[in-house]
């Protein structure tokens, strides 16, 4: 019998004999009539001289693909494992909290039920469009949305490395105009240092201004990190939440002290009985970031200084070194940046320096000014080159 049904599985099969070879093939349609139609098709193909070895394999491939799709988890299930393993193991506590917050509040509500192979360029663009509509209502900025996209890409990249996601979709970041970084001028620095009566806050502000250290690095500073004989500070740790961890770049750096910071630290050491340089008076442990941020904000509000944070002092430090002529390579080392491009973002050129540069073009220095050039153009027929040429004698 060329068509039969297997009792154990209930599937219909075809038995064919051709050129001394016997072939047993499963019917793609699991019924007697379907098996008979499949047998007729195969016999016709054999008469026409076609190869029938691949017939009947399509259903197996389809079933294999279905099984493979079942094995791909949804985004919610995968990120739960990703947070508990890769993120918690390889990131600092603050970074772990940031990624977990982005996932819970933004990515999971949109992508959570999708399987990893369903997250493609189209769905990502839909997410961006949805978040941009929120941006127009003043809820999110393009830079914040880019932060979400970075977390999404890192998660899917990890899934691909774990051989769970079949591919990594292209994630296009939104265009964000460069933000202006706030820094303090000399009068604002003097105003802030002279008005602060609390020795602890005053010294912390001075250290931030004269070293460019991050606030987390200042709060984690111990007396053993300060070498008064060499006049240097060794930046090894940073406060992340309530835990002292490595620095942001996971590298230690050496920071020479200014003369005024050296003197103030010597005086401060005599009044402190703690391994920490800046211990909390209430707990004896490190101050929390929220406490020191609130204290700084209160002082700046009283002085009328706007948009000042602890990171503003770091911007100010880089700007002062840059305008003072310090090499960018030295500024990079002092700030602890991985790339020189990052250092350039922190090093600003004040307006007065730009004005001094343009003043070099004035007539007193042997160059014609724009006004002189226009006057001469109105009286002379021949064309003169634009700017910066010595005046005619």
Instruction: Flag low-confidence runs.
Output: 380-393
In the CATH hierarchy, the third-tier topology of the largest domain is known as hpI Integrase, Chain A
The CATH architecture assignment of the largest domain turns out to be Orthogonal Bundle
Write out the CATH superfamily name of the largest domain.
Answer: Intergrase catalytic core
Distance between the termini: 116 Å
- Total strands: the figure is 8
Q: Tally the helices: what do you get?
A: 16
- Give the strand order of the largest sheet, numbering strands 1, 2, ... along the chain: 1-2-3
Helix content: 40-55%
Shape label = elongated
CATH class of the largest domain: Mainly Alpha
Kindly name the structural category. Answer: mainly alpha
Radius of gyration: 35 Å
């Amino acid at each position: 019998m060329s068509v039969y049904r297997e009792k154990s599985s209930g599937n219909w099969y075809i038995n064919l004999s051709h050129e001394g070879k016997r072939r047993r093939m499963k019917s793609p349609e699991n019924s007697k009539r379907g098996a008979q139609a499949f047998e007729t098709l195969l016999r016709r193909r054999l008469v026409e001289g076609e190869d029938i070895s691949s017939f009947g394999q399509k259903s197996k491939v389809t079933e294999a693909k279905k099984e493979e799709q079942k094995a791909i988890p949804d985004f919610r299930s995968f990120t739960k494992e990703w947070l508990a393993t890769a993120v918690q193991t390889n990131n600092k506590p603050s970074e772990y909290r940031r990624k977990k917050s982005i996932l819970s509040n933004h990515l999971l509500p949109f992508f959570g039920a999708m399987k990893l192979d369903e997250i493609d360029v189209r769905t990502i663009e839909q997410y961006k469009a949805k978040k941009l509509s929120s941006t127009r209502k003043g809820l999110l900025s393009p830079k914040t949305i880019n932060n979400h996209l970075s977390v999404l890409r890192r998660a899917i990249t990890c899934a691909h490395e774990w051989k769970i996601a079949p591919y990594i979709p292209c994630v296009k970041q939104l265009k964000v105009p460069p933000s202006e970084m706030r820094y303090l001028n000399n009068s604002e620095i003097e105003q802030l240092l002279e008005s602060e009566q609390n020795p602890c806050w005053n010294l912390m502000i001075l250290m931030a201004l004269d070293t460019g250290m991050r606030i987390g690095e200042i709060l984690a500073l111990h007396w053993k990190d300060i070498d008064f004989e060499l006049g240097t500070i060794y930046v090894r740790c940073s406060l992340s939440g309530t835990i002292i961890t490595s620095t942001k770049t996971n590298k230690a750096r050496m920071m020479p002290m200014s003369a005024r910071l050296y003197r103030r630290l010597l005086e401060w050491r005599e009044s402190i009985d703690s391994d920490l340089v800046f211990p909390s008076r209430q707990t004896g442990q490190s101050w929390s970031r929220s406490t020191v941020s609130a204290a700084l904000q209160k002082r700046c509000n009283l002085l009328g200084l706007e948009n000042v944070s602890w990171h503003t002092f770091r911007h100010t430090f880089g700007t002062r070194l840059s305008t003072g002529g310090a090499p960018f390579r030295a500024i990079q080392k002092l700030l602890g940046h991985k790339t020189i491009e990052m250092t350039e973002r922190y090093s600003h050129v004040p307006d007065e320096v730009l004005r001094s540069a343009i003043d070099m073009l004035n007539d007193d220095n042997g160059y014609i000014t724009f006004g002189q050039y226009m006057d001469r153009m109105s009286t002379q027929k021949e064309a003169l080159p634009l700017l910066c040429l010595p005046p005619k004698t």
